[in-house]
Amino acid sequence: MRANELRLDERSPLPVYVQIHDQLLHALARGAFRKGQRVPAVREMAAALGVNPNTVNRAYAELEREGVFETKRGRGTFVAR
User: Are 70 and 64 spatial neighbours (Cβ–Cβ below 8 Å)?
Assistant: First the structure.
């Protein structure tokens, strides 16, 4: 999956990080990612979506807290096995 495949709705009452979080979960459910696959870097995702990197980082942190993503220092963020 590429970062530019996500779509944000400016009129949505949901915060942007929640929209990113939910779309990434849907992408996982439909098989856009495989276990162990590297996901786009925070800065890459932020640039593609036109949002602050902290917003993407918050979505990634939520997914990591839920056990969906895992971050490997210096290597990136991956879909948890």
Answer: yes
Among 57, 81, 56, CA closest to 67: 81
One-letter amino acid of 12: S
Tell me the three state secondary structure of residue 67.
coil
What mean pLDDT is reported for the chain?
Answer: 94
CB atoms within 10 A of CB 58: 18
Q: Is residue 39 over pLDDT 90?
A: yes
User: What would the two tokens of residue 2 be?
Assistant: 């590429």
Q: Is 32 within 8 Å of 1 (Cβ atoms)?
A: yes
Residue 39 near residue 78 (C-beta atoms within 8 A) = yes
Residue 77 to residue 39: CA distance in whole angstroms: 6
Take residue 5 and report the two structure tokens written for it. Answer: 């495949």
| C-alpha–C-alpha distance, residues 30 and 16, integer Å | 21
